[in-house]
Amino acid sequence: LPCREIVKHQLPVASSLIVLLEQLRQLMKTYSFVRENVEKVCLQCHKIMESNSNEDNDIEKITSPDFSKYLYFLFAPTLIYCDTYPRTAVIHWDYVLQMFGQVFASIVYVYYVVVRFCVPTFENLNQNEITLPIFITVLFNSIMPGSLFLLLGFYGFLHCWLNAFAEMLRFADRMFYKDWWNSTSFAAYYRTWNVVVHDWLYTYVYKEIFILSGRKNRVIPAVCVVLLSATFHEYVMIFALGFFYPVMFLLFGVVGMGFLFFLPRNKGVVYNILLWAFLLIGVGLQSCFYFMEAYARKSCPPNDTIWDKVIPRSVVCRVSLPSTKLLHIDL
């Protein structure tokens, strides 16, 4: 398992993220490929059985997608398998280089934000002296870096990276996201932020559960989608960072679900401002808690118990911390 190899070889954060995200990508693509073709193959087998033919070459009559189609699907920027996709006529290699260049620039900018804004905030933070005013100050100092992580991740991956591969593969359907920044509710935000993943969740989770529930209840499928998405997000964060701290799951799967079902779905500038306020505070909280825990695990002595793996060390650490810089943590 990838997570086992990550723990065994103690991979740094960036390498762990690459392995984990690739694992999830392959998992979702494989499920889509099987799900879209198993019905076709079963239907062909059923027709052969109904024909009562005993010929030995009947099995050869069962057709399946060519390997070239599967190989194209593995690299195409989509998680829904189709035998054919809309294609463009030519490849603009200058556009591809431009997109990859902007991906590299986004990565460099993320590193700069960590070194310039996050390290000075957390390197001298004494876990034993954190009070509510200090925590609020640290939280507000984390909102801007967290917001930049959100925007740079969106632009670097959903826009630049996916468009680069779409251009190289002449993949014409490039609606990887919609205008999520204009959303006035979290329901709209979840649908438009990442259309690639949303389409997979809607097709293979929401619709399937909705059909199994008798097409009468839309709440249960929505809850399952949110919990599944939050679980996989937390899985990535646990093994990438090397510790269990379910901030992502609580904010995404619990608080986010509350916003999804209980906040009014009205339109207007005021609701868009409120959504942005909640969103920025949320990414600020995530950045604040994760950096505090990373610094605590770098500075506080570990315990040789299983609880050390699941209890946040930033909560139980009660020693005066030396001035160990977070910059020393492998990125």
From TrEMBL:
Q: Which PANTHER family match?
A: O-ACYLTRANSFERASE, STEROL O-ACYLTRANSFERASE
Q: Where is the active site?
A: H233
The terms describing its cellular component in GO are:
endoplasmic reticulum membrane
The keyword Transmembrane is assigned to this record: yes
Specify the superkingdom.
Eukaryota
- Locate the transmembrane regions by residue number: 95-114, 134-158, 243-263, 270-292
> Which protein family is it in?
Belongs to the membrane-bound acyltransferase family. Sterol o-acyltransferase subfamily.
Instruction: Give yes or no: UniProt keyword ATP-binding.
Output: no
State the taxonomy lineage: Eukaryota, Metazoa, Spiralia, Gnathifera, Rotifera
- GO annotation terms (biological process): cholesterol metabolic process
**Per the UniProt entry, what species is this protein from, by scientific name?**
Adineta steineri
GO molecular function terms noted in the UniProt entry: O-acyltransferase activity
Q: For this UniProt record, give its keywords in alphabetical order, as a comma-separated list.
A: Acyltransferase, Endoplasmic reticulum, Membrane, Transferase, Transmembrane, Transmembrane helix
Membrane topology note: Multi-pass membrane protein
Cell compartment(s), UniProt: Endoplasmic reticulum membrane
Output this protein's name.
Sterol O-acyltransferase 1
Residues spanning the signal sequence: none
